[in-house]
Amino acid sequence: MSDLIGHGPIRRELWTLAARPDPPHALLLAGPEGLGRTRLAREYAAALNCEARPASLFGPAEPTPPCGGCRPCRLIAAGTHPDVLLLEPGDALCRPRAGESSHERHPNSRDIRICQVRGVIDLVSRYPLEARFRVIVVEPAERLGREAQPALLKTLEEPPPHTVFVLVTAAPEAVSETIRSRCRRIDVRPVPSAELRAALEARGVPPDRAAAIAEAARGRPAAALAYAERPDLLDDRERLAQRCRTLAQASDSARLAHAGELAERYRRDRQLVEAELDSWETFWEGELRAAAAAGDRRAVREALTALRGVAQARADLLANVQPRLAFDLMLLRCGRRTLASNDA
To answer: Which of 16, 32, 57, 224 would suit a FRET pair with 196, their CA atoms being 20 to 30 Å apart?
Structure first.
């Protein structure tokens, strides 16, 4: 797919797997948000169903990408293929129990529920409408509910021959070990800065701008594309860095007030707030390097705690935790030594 940046070895692995007559029935794509995991899942679906890539008994001599021009490739790229489906929190594919007339819709659910898994099980019992392989993308897989995981496990243990599952997760440890053991795991890692820069230049971004974006994106193609589309996000970095320095020395009350502002802005412009989270990570990584160089173990621990706080805030937001609560916890975890001295 033309919108994918980097991940050359993973893509070649996916092309090779898709060319087998009996491809793996379940993959687990594990890695942080923004690396292109969903795009990789979509490319795998295209490789499985591309009309220009017939399966081979012995596999291809050289892995080749999906053509991008046949009907399956076009529909998958557009997100409209009837046999490539996304299982996500909400009520998509929901199938209540027979006779369960009181079942309420749950479009705002934070989890993937067992009623949705029932819908998937019913769906995969039938042949695909037109694809060689029906592909079910489960994202985020860590949001599979307590009852949903064992229900899905039964299908993963005895998968239909015409169905492939792709589980996408930023927290593989939150997926049950039994489900993970049924999947072929592929770890998706940050893209090197040079690859991001080259991809941006190929999209017409001036070299100097591309280099600055690649550095700010921190290995995440989604962030790089967002910075390229919205230059204001990148231009705001110095102001955000100064805000981080100020808040690192602020009292609890000042931090909580800023958490409220972040929550309000998050409702209006998520990309802008995500750029601020990037700045927090950059700031605390700098603090971590300085503390490590100085041999200050306490400061090292504080910086690591702050970075974990930012990572947890990202995870909480993905899990639909109230933004205000997520930002409160993040800011209160940052720089406890400075807070103690200022609050005294």
So the answer is: 16
